[in-house]
């Protein structure tokens, strides 16, 4: 529908399968004014739990919104975290 999307494809981890999924759900992004508005729509904001006087902030993500879109962002982020961890480990070894 949108063809190649240079903006989405320029993001680390975003590939030719993930970018169209994100574009299909978010469209041109005009409905979501900021990233803070997009995160709850996708369902990647941390949930909170409270009971009486006990509050546990920053638990797992809320898992609201389209599961396919959340999966697309997860798949895009996973290689980035792996390469970042590998880069840090390599730098640590080089510093020895």
Detailed description of the structure:
This protein is mainly alpha-helical. The protein contains four helices and two strands, in the order αααββα. It has helices spanning 6-9, 18-26, 35-42, 67-94; strands at 49-51, 54-56. The protein has a two-stranded antiparallel sheet. α2 (18-26) packs across α4 (67-94). The radius of gyration is 17 Å and the shape is flat. The mean pLDDT is 78.
Q: What's the alpha carbon Rg, rounded to whole Å?
A: 17 Å
Q: Helix/strand/pairing class, anyone?
A: mainly alpha
- Taken in chain order, the helices and strands follow as HHHEEH
Question: What does the average pLDDT come to?
Answer: 78
Query: Fraction of residues in helices?
Result: 40-55%
Q: Choose one word for the global shape.
A: flat
Beta percentage is 5-15%
What is the number of E strands? 2
Query: Total number of helical segments?
Result: 4
Distance between the first and last residues' Cα: 51 Å
The low-pLDDT segments are none
The biggest beta sheet is recorded as: 2 strands, antiparallel
How are the strands of the largest sheet arranged?
1-2
């Amino acid at each position: 529908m949108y063809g190649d999307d240079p903006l989405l494809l320029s993001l680390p981890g975003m590939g030719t399968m993930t970018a169209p999924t994100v574009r299909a759900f978010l469209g041109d992004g005009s409905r979501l004014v900021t990233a803070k508005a997009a995160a709850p729509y996708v369902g990647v904001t941390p949930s909170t739990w409270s009971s009486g006087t006990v509050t546990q902030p920053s638990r797992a993500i809320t898992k609201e919104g389209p599961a396919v879109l959340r999966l697309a962002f997860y798949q895009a982020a996973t290689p980035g975290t792996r390469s970042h961890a590998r880069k840090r480990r390599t730098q640590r070894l080089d510093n020895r």
